[in-house]
Amino acid sequence: MKEFISGHETLRLIRGKSDLPGTDKAGLYLLKGDATSDGLTLEIPEDLQFPDPWRFNKDPFLLKILHFNDIHGHFSHIDQKKNEPVFSRIVSHIRKVRSTCRDNPLSGVLVFSGGDDIIGSPFDILVGNDLSSYQTHAGYHLYSKAGIDAAVVGNHEFDMGLDLLARSIQTDADFPLLSANLKPTRQIEELCFPAAIFYIKGVRVGVIGLTTAAEICSRPGSEYEIVDPIPVVIRLLPIVRSLSDVVIILSHLGYNLSSSTAAMAFAGDMELAQSLPFGSVDLIVGGHTHDPMNQNGLDPQNYVNGIPITQAGCNGRYLGEVDILLHPKQTEVSVVLNCIEELPVDVDFEEKHVQPLIEKIRPQFEKVLGTVEDSQDLRADVRDNIGTTDESAFYNFVSDALVACCRKHGFFADLAVIDASIINDILTPGKEFNYGDWMRVMPYANTVMLFKLTGRQLVDLIQDNARRIDIPQEPFEERGFLRFSSKIRYRINVSPFRSEIQATDILFDSVPIEKLIDRSFSIVCTNFFRVIARRWEEHAMVSLPLLVISPNNVQGLDTGLFVRDLLIEHIQQYEGINYLGGAKRDGRMVKIT
To answer: What is the average pLDDT across 541-561?
Structure first.
């Protein structure tokens, strides 16, 4: 046994699979244990033959890293007539690069996913809602067939719940899932690892995985904890460095805390790099914030504290390619971002592996749900892209449907509150739509939360909401403006100054709210409630009185019901999205300027 750091938790080095398809590595080793502990000890079993450090002869070694992130199940763009390959284009380049390097003893290739591998496309159908309906995890299945070397656990991996995540890894992932700052849980402690060491042609490549704590969907029975990544890496890095010639962090933290494309927690890649010793990590491969970074080579602003940072956009639009050239005392890093549309399709991979999955989902994908009524209210929503804070027939339809469907499933609710995170796209009035179309509108596996407020707290929430409305001539920023179901009526007196904006004439079921101050209200929202507004809230609270209410801090209950499925029930009941089902503007919110 060898010990490098004394502490409270022993990380054990074990052998991983080393005969995976498409790879040219000679060995895989995994660190097993809880890397979130205050102190760490490394144990190497006596019978484990761990390779010696890389020895420089006369020529440097070229390590190529191919990476993508936040693909969200966009392995193919599917419509009723055809599909446009996406992942098969990525595979074509992976196979080309591997073929080029395979017979070169001084060149090796590793391929990584930066997390959020499904949730957001029709391929989610195959995961199902529970273990009994599970078919396959399309991402992990395709990654295994392509010979991906490792993936980090992203925040949307938790959308399916830990039981389904565990089944996905066990059934479909022939590669390690990494996350050092995720505390081990009963379901996945044997399936997810803090770090991996790849031994490839004499070079040891250590990879540490990190997961963001932001935008996490909680599910009943899926208790887990994601901790601050910086102290975890500071404690873990000496161990991984002692086992590695190259150290890479595979991160799903996001670029930095100022990023506006996703909610952030604790730290982003930039803050992480700034907190580490200069040049102590050779590369950070990122995800979460969907940034297509270094499109014209390594941008100097992405070289932080001697550590290069990169990320490859989202939804399969780019494939990152990093060259790490190893010299005896230094490494040189260069970066390329490949546009997927410009890559050829690997026809063999598409036919053997992608098409069978498409055929599995196509019957459900093409199932007609109904027709969008050709009403003036819905046409106005399309014209405005339902992105303004005027009253919206479509949001009214969704909020009223959630109340009705929750009651139907045995969860009583007085009202619903929803924000922009619930809607990802729009449908065209006067057109028939199917399940695949609805997946565009609601791509994520959000669940329904219930929480309680007093009448006084409800008034405060409505007043807070009024201050989040769009002000003319002000740049748009997601502020978490809420839409209420039909029993709430109120007016907003708009002012150029947010602190002066007021909500007035608040009614619940035609009763002035002042008469219901002490009443308890049961309120429906989603488990993603106002998450995308947190960055604005942090800045706005410095000068603006805000009421930041979360279902988690007012004893919210996750019902386990999926928002998307409830809305489909409501749509099918009314044979579409129409006036009868609640798709109308009824004056529940009036702006006074």
So the answer is: 69
511: confidence class by pLDDT, cuts 50, 70, 90: very high
Residue in 463, 444, 391, 412 with CA at minimum distance from that of residue 563: 444
Bridge partners (DSSP) listed for residue 204: 199
Q: Mean pLDDT over residues 140-154, rounded?
A: 97
Backbone angles phi, psi at 8, to 5 degrees: -100, -15
Scored b (16 or more CB within 10 A) or e, 141-173 reads: bbbbbbbbbbbbbbbbbbbbbbbbbbbbbeebb
138-146 and 162-172 helices, crossing angle to 10° = 30
Domains of the chain: 9-362 (3.60.21.10), 367-592 (3.90.780.10)
Give the residue among 581, 415, 396, 583 at the shortest CA–CA distance from 506: 415
Q: What distance separates the 2 farthest-apart alpha carbons in the chain?
A: 84
Whether the CA torsion 340, 346, 351, 357 is positive or negative: it is negative
Residue pair 288/179 in contact by the 8 Å Cβ criterion = no
Q: At what angle do helices 138-146 and 87-102 cross, to 10 degrees?
A: 20
Sheet strands side by side (includes 576-577): 432-434, 368-372, 576-577
**pLDDT grade, residue 530 (50/70/90)?**
confident
CA distances to 38, 57, 348, 350 from 100, rounded to whole Å, are 44, 22, 19, 21
Say how far apart CA 434 and CA 291 lie, in whole Å: 31
Q: Considering only CA atoms, which of 146, 144, 203 is closest in space to residue 168?
A: 144
> How much is the CA Rg of the chain, to the nearest whole Å?
25
Q: How far is CA 410 from CA 123, 145, 309, 343, 416, in A?
A: 30, 43, 49, 51, 15
Beta bridge partners of 152: 178
Model pTM? 0.82
Judge contact between 312 and 68, C-beta under 8 A.
yes
Average per-residue pLDDT for the chain: 90
Angle at 95 between CA 94 and CA 99, to 5 degrees: 120
What pLDDT is recorded for position 4?
40
Across the range 81-107, mean pLDDT stands at 93
Q: Which of 403, 539, 371 is nearest to 483 (CA)?
A: 403
Which amino acid, 100? Answer: T
pLDDT tier, 177 (very low <50, low <70, confident <90, very high otherwise)? very high
Q: What's the first-to-final CA gap in the chain, in angstroms?
A: 74
Instruction: Kindly state the DSSP code that residue 489 receives in the 8-state scheme.
Output: E
Residues 128/164, Cβ–Cβ less than 8 Å: yes
Cβ-based neighbours of 333, under 8 Å, separated by 6 or more: 282, 283, 298, 308, 322, 323, 324, 325
List the beta bridge partners of residue 65.
110, 322
For residue 344, the tally of other CB atoms under 10 A from its CB is 11
